[in-house]
Amino acid sequence: MNLIDDLKWRGLLADCTDLAGLGERIATGKPITVYCGFDPTGDSLHVGHLMGQLTLARFQRAGHHVIALAGGATGMVGDPSGRSSERNLLTREQLAHNIACIKAQLSRLLDFTASANPARLVDNADWIAPFTFLDFLRDVGKYFSLNVMLAKDSVKSRMEGDAGISYTEFSYQLLQAYDFLHLRQTFACELQIGGSDQWGNLTAGTDLIRKKLGSDTTAFGWTFPLITKSDGTKFGKTAGGAVWLDATRTSPYKLYQFFVNTEDAKVGEYLRKFTFLSREEVEPLEAAHAVNPGAREAHKALAREVTKLVHGQAALDAALKASEILFGAEIGDTSEETFNDVVGEIPTKSVERAKLEAPGTALTELLVHSGLAPSKGQARKDIEGGGIYVNNVKSPDIARAITSADLLFGKHLLLRKGKRSYAVLTVA
């Protein structure tokens, strides 16, 4: 498949200002320059931002030129699209910090050192900040009809709500439109991509380019669908909050678990949208899932691919090792960092270190303390029945005492009852 057909097969086309024209432009064989913007409202992107990054990466892998735009200027204003209230405004220092952090995350998916078509990271504060208010009104504002601006969905929805919309946010579409114009003039950028909620901002940009540079100037807008769960709720949220791309905020193990627990109805869609697996690789996984969904082959492939893309092979290996521990694998040479990810997923209780000094504390007592057994009598029955494991090693001795020598990394004890009931005791 050519690039556009591949993007359509992956479900990455919501709308395009001129799909036929874009297809003809790409068919010329001359690389096109495409950009996607990221407002640095935090020091980490989340999984919802992967669509923009991955779509840029697909263009780059196809030989095109890609630009990631960090909204150092627009981030100070806040995009009203998809929001019911105004964002908190950030200082320049906060934005500079966030942009530096985000570039490291972008570097996982975009190649900034490629010899033929290296990715670029630009900050729109570089060209918007020097603008005076009067110059902006004269050189940009006069090209926008207030009637058209008020008709944008992102504006209408806010005006119809109780909170309304501030002049600051109302002006956002002019700033984003000017970004596209600047990139068109500076880097010959012809295509802007974004989520479907960005349609109004994208068309504002293509309109401004044609008004300023001539009606025959090529400029295209492409949106991809916003990702939602089966119930229509926002993708990328868990009970613990957003799923971040920064490993210090969401560990590779938790990212892996997020995707391995994808709804059955969504796993095929996510394989196409969140991975670089080809059609020949994805369709057999979808077929296998339809025949035997319990094997979760498609889910595991999805989780592996995304974790490796975002964090690299070493982090994926550690995440897989952590997952295996919860399926009874030996602890072996597992790192403390990997084991800590497991601890975060298992009920944990503290135990006094003094209780583990020789001769230690009876395993039966610790099973009750951990909550794995309701009484010492039941704990003995569970041990005799071969269903109790200490650090994932079967422990059939009802007289066994646990000492500090049994602690993992000098602080943790992993107890398991049966195949799936775990508890961790951590020394206080």
UniProtKB/TrEMBL annotation:
Gene Ontology biological-process annotations: tyrosyl-tRNA aminoacylation
'HIGH' region, short sequence motif: residues: 40-49
EC number: 6.1.1.1
UniProt KW RNA-binding keyword: yes
UniProt feature coiled coil, ranges: none
A molecular function (GO) term: RNA binding
Record key words, sorted: Aminoacyl-tRNA synthetase, ATP-binding, Cytoplasm, Ligase, Nucleotide-binding, Protein biosynthesis, RNA-binding
Similarity section: Belongs to the class-I aminoacyl-tRNA synthetase family. TyrS type 1 subfamily.
Record-given protein name: Tyrosine--tRNA ligase
